[in-house]
Amino acid sequence: MANQHVVRDQQGGGEPALDFEAVYQGREVSYGAASPQADLIPWRLDGPQPLLVELEAAGEITGPVLECGCGLGDNAVFLASRGHEVTAFDAAPAAIEKARSKVTAAAPVTFTVADATELNGIGVPGGFRTVVDSAMLHCLTADQRRAYLRRLRRVCAPGAKLHALCFSGELAASLQMPAAMDEDSLRADFDHDWRIRRMEPCHYTTSLSLQQWRSLSPAVTDAPEGEGLVALDQNDRVLLPFWRITAELT
Q1: Keywords assigned by UniProt (predicted)?
Q2: Does the first or last residue of the chain, that is N or C, have fewer Cβ atoms within 10 Å of its Cβ?
Q3: What is the pLDDT of residues 135-166, one digit of tens each?
């Protein structure tokens, strides 16, 4: 995955599924084989993910914090504004360039380009005590996912917590994600280095209207009861079924 800003299919071959560098450069991409080209970024909220805000408010974030696959940096900036020491990385240079523009004296963040399966150049003295993964885990193939979880051990403090938000199995299967996202598959991969303390269904906030969701995900919404997989928040933004996982480094 080094120097690749894409996710490949489960067999590791074929065409890249999504070019994240193109996404963050504002170019049109397709989010699925049957989807039209669009320049939307479904996870761009111009603010932190509400699920992460809930975790921070509950006292479940302790610095130093590492955010993996930080994208445009809004989660990292939010955590820094709450007084946490934050390092954040993404594989897409265009994302990191935009994220760095959001750094202020009140919300200092170390943003860097890195590969999640290698984590070269990532680290702080004593190791990270909290890792945040907001919708990156499901972008990895099964082999990449295992490599990523192993590499985190190298940069984390003993007993560190990992909070991962990722597609749940039913929706992930409909969208043809690069690896299985059912509970058994995820638990098997985590169990090599991490002990799952909590794994529960939740709803992840996107920037999409229902019409945009229907356009970007016809393979899901055309299926029987497909739209029942999603809900809407009070601002009519699509909420997607996710796993909320909290794991502790063994």
Answers
A1: Methyltransferase, S-adenosyl-L-methionine, Transferase
A2: C
A3: 999 999 999 999 999 999 999 999 999 999 99
